[in-house]
Amino acid sequence: MQGIQLGMIRKVLVCSPRFSRLCSSSKINKQVFHGYAYLPRLWCSIASTTALPTSPSSFSTSTATRKHSEALVYNKHGEPSHVIRMESQELPELGEFGVRVKMLAAPVNPSDINMVQGTYAILPELPAVGGNEGVGEVLEVGNKVTSLSPGDWVIPADAGLGTWRTEAVYNKKTLTKVPHDIPLVCAATLSVNPFTAYRMLHDFETLQPGDTVIQNAANSAVGQAVIQLGTALGIRTVNVVRDRPDFQMLEDRLISIGADYVVTEETLRKPEMKDLFKKIPRPRLALNCVGGKSSTELLRHLQRGGTMVTYGGMSKQPLTVPVSALIFNDIKLRGFWMTQWKKDQPHDSSQLNEMISRLCDLFRAKKLTAPLHTEVPFKEFKIALEASMKPFVSCKQILKM
Q: Does residue 200 have a pLDDT over 80?
């Protein structure tokens, strides 16, 4: 008895089968027990048949059962390879609306890098866990969660969730359920690039089979999705990439997934582009992820009344728009950010659900595939980060937990 608190003993005795039998046979009044009468006699009677913790601290169920996760954390902004460290984090209590998720895979996207660098439009409070995209499996749900069950696959409902970790407890509102009969990497890379490509092809121009779309950064994950979605819709794509030593290999790769034409930035400025648009209609839609001179050249090839949508600025150079493009060709300039699109319809999930359904149908039909990628074990995250920062990157780095 010495050194053990009576309250702790009471908890053990109440759970004891021997105590339950004694109470049911009316040998003990439970109310009297809870006032700590009978404790000395009961302890001697039951201690020999009841397994007890070896130390008082073992009685704390919250401490004993609390789970941990490995996470990629940054405490300050800077180059990812310098500021990100793998740390062990204690998972919070599940709560009524919590969902415990085992992360399965998460990509390294340019927006993830920008967020760590501190240059993105939205930044989480520090310290923060990296990663905005990925797929996880539900392990456990709170008692007021009815929309998800253990075994379901989920993706982030918005940016800033912190997906570079092995496990996490998220609020149910921050998660979106996806089918688990599509390839794992397709699910892990669904919520940023295919979503962006889908929305840009559907929301700015009413495109018909036979129409043309022109895009720069065509080897990016969004660019690859645009090519495949365009093919499924019967839309021609003119795909612009930077000049590079392995251009022929890249051209073959893009053509293999449905690209109609692949040209370099240098070719885009040459008169021979006029010959191309004698064969096919001038583009109604241009998709700009680069900015600077590249975006100006895209504008020159749009048909009258066409639209250029800017969704990135990889060159870090401003758009330069000729006055003639606006006055004489009535070109429209728009911007797109997937995060904002989601914020604009917080109470209407119908468009999101329809988009997920259509994209997953294309995955199943193998008309849409994951971008060219390399799977990297989670503990080797530095390899993935360094590879993502290299120039002329066409291969997405996927962290496998």
A: yes
